[in-house]
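Progress against Task 2.4 (sequence-to-structure conversion) is shown through the following example record, which the project officer requested during the mid-term review.
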Amino acid sequence: MFTIISKLCSSIYSFWQGFADIDMQALFLTVVTFVGISLISLWILATFFDRFLRIGSIFKSNSWQILWKDIKEYLPSNSFGRMIVIIAALIWLELFAKILYGLLDFLFIQKEVLSTPKNERELDLTVGIALIATLSALVALPFTIWRLQETRRQNDHNELKLFNVKLTAATNDLFATHEVSTFEDNNDGNDRDKTNLQPVRTFIKDDFLKRIIALNTLKRLFDEKQNDVKVATEICSIISEYVQTMSHASYSNPDKEFTKFEDTSFDPGKAVRKDTQKAVQILCEINATNKLKPDYKINLSNTNLIGMDLSKLNFKKINLTGANLAGANLSGTNLTEANLTGANLTGAILESAILANTMLSKAILFETNFSYASFSYTKEQRLTNVKFKHSKFLYTRFRYLTLSGDNFHNPSFGGTAIRDSILEKNMHCHLTTSNTPFFLDGTVEIDSNAREDKGNIWPDTILNDKDYEKEYERFLKEGPNYIPPQLRGKNQG
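Structure tokens generated for the chain above:
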């Protein structure tokens, strides 16, 4: 044993003596660096394969399918992005091959390096170290990118988890309630002992403050995820369902087992639920962003929106079929393509509202105020099953409509502008009985006798948009003294 150890030491010493004139520090650093980088690369590769292939099942038939499926998650979804990634991968492989070839070539010509003068030898060893460092950086580059991607995905997962927690909490708070009790004093005399106060009735009331806070939270969550159409639409659906559920409710149902009674002081017909009003306002704000699915329409059908302040909101394409909007303030609202079929608009205020292609069939329009509102359609359309009763149309605009006297019962017209429309004969009575007449131009089809009965007070030619607005303003300003363009020159003559 001693002899073997002696021979081994002698061999090592001889080997050392043979390289006595070599800068062993540089050579040792080169070898250690190469070995270290190799071990790190193997560890990264092992981690990579364990992540994607699960080394225990690498020989299963679907392993490579799993690999390709996971890899595709890291690739861009569009073909152009994938092409860029492929080109970058090819460039990386070319650089890796060239640097690896240079490094191997350097290691296999060590004899020539050792025989060169010391200064040149140190330069060659420096080049070798640089090649190793460059190769290690090149090997680590894709794994660094992959690791950054994994970190980003993990952060996204954590953010989504936190978002879902907030969404669940806000949804639960939409139905928040609290108890309110009334007490009876059983003490005799003037001294009041609060310990003897006995609960007489306990009410379960909706916690409106907490619900409104929850609705504002849902709006903020929508703002965070509005670029995600699917999530944004889901949030909108939650609020829409809440309005449909709670617009007809007063307070929570009583639980008689615990002597709790429903508070009947809240009358939906007399008071406005602040939470549902806030929910509708938020829905219209969301609707104005156009961040929902193209085929999704907010559904507020058959909801109770009596007396709510819904002014200056965007109801574009919202389904309000059968909704009760009696006494609601809809001033300045955008009702373009909204469905108000069968809706109750009794006493509602629609001043300056935009009604473009709005469906009003079978709607209850009693004493509805349409002053300064604008009715317009993309093509001539008859107001079928639409009956305006005692409604106001002061300075209202009608365009692309067939107006019939059957649509109006005791209306209030004044300064009403009609354009590109057809006035049926039974509509002429409203032209002659109105205190403040209509304004129309040559685009309106009307019986010639009706024009003569009114003294030809309207322009008889087709006016462009600019001239029409100019003449309409003049008509409103001059009133009965207005002279149409075709007669203006004659009167001056």
